[in-house]
Design brief:
alpha/beta; 5 helices; 38% helix
């Protein structure tokens, strides 16, 4: 959540989305891990021809306030990329994707900062979701050695 980290992740994440070919209207995922990544990418897109809105998926709807599961400028019919900080099992991304679909959005895929390579990618792909990760555990370990 540092300024340098947000600037780097926003730019890299936006580039990865553009490289994927997904034409997304909005980006978000399960709070809290996805939030700063989605916001950084949205901010990085602000002065482009296709700005991307960011939203948050709550773990459960609040009993007060709006009572929504999805907060932020998400609209029915949006083409969405789900964001994950780290993919381990894929369950957080699946929960977020289910919430987006239930609210009328179309999920184009999952963008992860790190794929831990512990089966999460395969679980998401088995559900028909394309996965793009900025780095894998192997990438990080290779640099650390």
């Amino acid at each position: 959540m540092s300024p340098d980290g947000l600037a780097l992740i926003g730019t890299l994440g936006l580039g990865a989305l553009r490289d994927s070919g997904w034409q997304v209207d909005a980006i978000g995922g399960l709070t809290l891990g996805a939030d700063p990544i989605a916001y950084a990418i949205s901010y990085a897109s602000a002065h482009t021809a296709s700005p991307i809105r960011a939203f948050t998926v709550r773990k459960e709807a609040k009993a007060h306030g709006t009572g929504k599961l999805i907060e932020g400028p998400f609209h029915e019919g949006d083409h969405v990329a789900i964001v994950e900080d780290v993919i381990t099992t894929g369950s957080s991304a699946l929960r977020a994707a289910d919430a987006v679909r239930a609210a009328g959005g179309e999920v184009l895929g999952v963008l992860a900062l790190v794929d831990r390579e512990e089966g999460g990618r395969a679980a998401l792909e088995a559900k028909g979701l394309q996965v793009v990760s900025l780095v894998t555990a192997a990438d990080i370990l290779a640099v650390a050695v």
